[in-house]
Write a structure and sequence with these properties.
heterodimer; A: 264 residues; alpha/beta; Rossmann fold; 6-stranded mixed sheet; 4-stranded antiparallel sheet; 12 helices; 10 strands; 36% helix; globular; B: 221 residues; mainly alpha; Methane Monooxygenase Hydroxylase, Chain G, domain 1; 6 helices; 84% helix; 0% strand; elongated
């Protein structure tokens, strides 16, 4: 195993919003993440790439403590978001998940109308005034680049939408709770190239207001949309750098071999 | 996800570049030899064959573009492809310089040379030796060897100045030879440019391996 220079991983970045230090995660006795140390910049798109089982999804699921729901998971090290240790005993996990929204690989709209899907989060938070919810709905759908396509059928079922539209409904649903960070776990893997392109354009727009962290198997996608990219292998962060550097001149041979298809 | 066909295509492309470089080296060598031997037919052949070099360059360029479009090369593969695009442009221009020397040979025609050619063949030999080393550095991805090549360019520059001064003196002594002597300074200039082009290729090799653009063709002379 190559010994990595710590500078390759803890890259100096502007405005770190997420600070991960020596994070290790075990599923039972299996070590899934090994001493991950990296910072994520505010209002930038950060991609995590790597072969299946490398730990990239596990890592983003740590950022809103979704792994808490899996039995036998233990975590060492720490993650700070906005300077606050998210694994501290006093932390309110619901508030954390409001701050750190998530969109999954397969679009999973609720079997409700488009409108009700988008305003679901705000309703749970206790917002009931129709004019406020209407405004939230429109704003979120506009940010998710879906408003023009669905504005005339907000009261129809979200399940009637195409896969790409359903995924954007899920993104609008995540945005509606006004998170600071949006986590996306392979959000385009079930979508066609046109739907993928729309999501990619939207993600680049979203970074004006949000920090976007995306796990993707599509390296061209990472290259196209992200400002920073981390390459993971066997639970280790091999390299973290500015995206153009990763894809034109990676420092580590393992990164080079993976992105040029010489291994994997 | 290993991509054998793609990586084989990259290796084939490198072989094509070496083949093109061989054609260019041959043209340079023969252009100076035919000038020296006053072999008009050989000079004509060099001029005709330049189109083969140009065709080869376009064929390689098309294959590079096709690989970029279909394989989305990244990291070292992307650097190799963009470097090849630059290298074949330099090689093609070197071919044009050889063609230029052959055309000068035709312009001189039946006239005997105003002086025996000594430094001009030396410039050709050094340029060809630089190209040969450069191709080895390209194949071996040898940055240090590529850097060293640039030092030899100074020798070629010095020889070019020497040829120019010598011919100038001859022209002053005997204005009747101005016509041919001027042609010979053009030959020297073509060879000086050939060596410069080799240093461009050496710079590309350094970029290809390290990912860093370095200006190496800064003459100390």
């Amino acid at each position: 195993m190559v010994q990595h220079n710590i500078d390759i991983k803890r890259l100096k970045i502007p405005e770190p919003i997420v600070v991960i230090t020596d994070l290790s995660l075990y599923y039972g006795k299996t070590l899934a993440l090994k001493e991950i140390t990296l910072d994520i910049s505010k209002k930038k798109v950060t991609s995590f790439i790597g072969p299946s089982g490398c730990g990239k999804s596990t890592l983003i699921r740590c950022l809103n403590r979704l792994n808490d729901l899996i039995e036998g998971v233990t975590i060492e090290g720490n993650i700070k978001i906005d300077g606050q240790d998210i694994y501290a005993p006093a932390i309110d996990v619901t508030a954390l998940r409001k701050k750190v929204g998530m969109v999954f690989q397969k679009p999973n709209p609720f079997p409700k109308t488009i409108y009700e899907n988008v305003v679901y989060g705000p309703r749970v938070q206790g917002i009931n005034k129709k004019s406020v919810l209407d405004e939230i709905c429109e704003k979120a759908l506009k940010k998710a680049a879906l408003w023009d396509e669905v504005k005339d059928r907000l009261r129809t079922s979200a399940l009637d939408l195409s896969g790409g539209q359903q995924q954007r409904i899920c993104i609008a649903r995540a945005i509606a709770t006004e998170p600071e960070i949006i986590l996306l776990d392979e959000p385009c893997s079930a979508l066609d190239p046109i739907a993928t392109a729309k999501i990619e354009d939207m993600l680049v727009d979203l970074k004006k207001d949000y920090t976007v962290i995306i796990v993707t198997h599509n390296m061209q996608q990472a290259a196209r949309i992200s400002d920073y990219t981390g390459f993971f292998m066997l639970g280790t962060l091999v390299e973290f750098n500015i995206t153009t550097e990763i894809f034109t001149n990676p420092r580590e041979k393992q990164t080079e071999d993976y992105i040029t298809g010489r291994f994997g | 996800m290993t991509r054998e066909a793609y990586h084989k295509a990259l290796i084939n492309l490198q072989d094509e570049v070496l083949e093109m470089a061989g054609m260019v080296a041959n043209a340079i060598k023969k252009s100076v030899e035919s000038l020296q031997k006053r072999d008009i037919n050989e000079s004509k052949t060099i001029i005709t064959n330049d189109s083969l070099i140009n065709k080869k360059r376009f064929a390689i360029e098309e294959r590079c573009i096709s690989l970029i479009a279909t394989q989305q090369p990244m990291a070292v593969d992307l650097r190799v492809l963009t470097s090849i695009l630059s290298i074949i442009t330099d090689l093609e221009r070197m071919g044009d310089h050889a063609e230029g020397i052959a055309k000068i040979s035709l312009l001189i025609g039946d006239e005997p040379l105003v002086k025996p050619l000594i430094d001009i063949p030396r410039m050709s030999d050094i340029g060809l030796s630089m190209l040969d080393k450069c191709l080895k550095a390209f194949v071996n991805r040898d940055v240090e060897a590529a850097r060293l090549i640039c030092n030899e360019d100074d020798t070629v520059d010095a020889l070019h100045d020497q040829v120019y001064r010598e011919l100038l003196i001859l022209m002053i002594q005997n204005p009747k030879i101005i016509h041919q002597a001027t042609y010979l300074t053009w030959v020297s200039h073509n060879l000086e440019r050939i060596a410069d082009r080799v240093t461009n290729i050496a710079e590309r090799i350094v970029f290809m391996v390290t990912g860093k653009m370095e200006e190496m063709n800064v003459s100390k002379y």
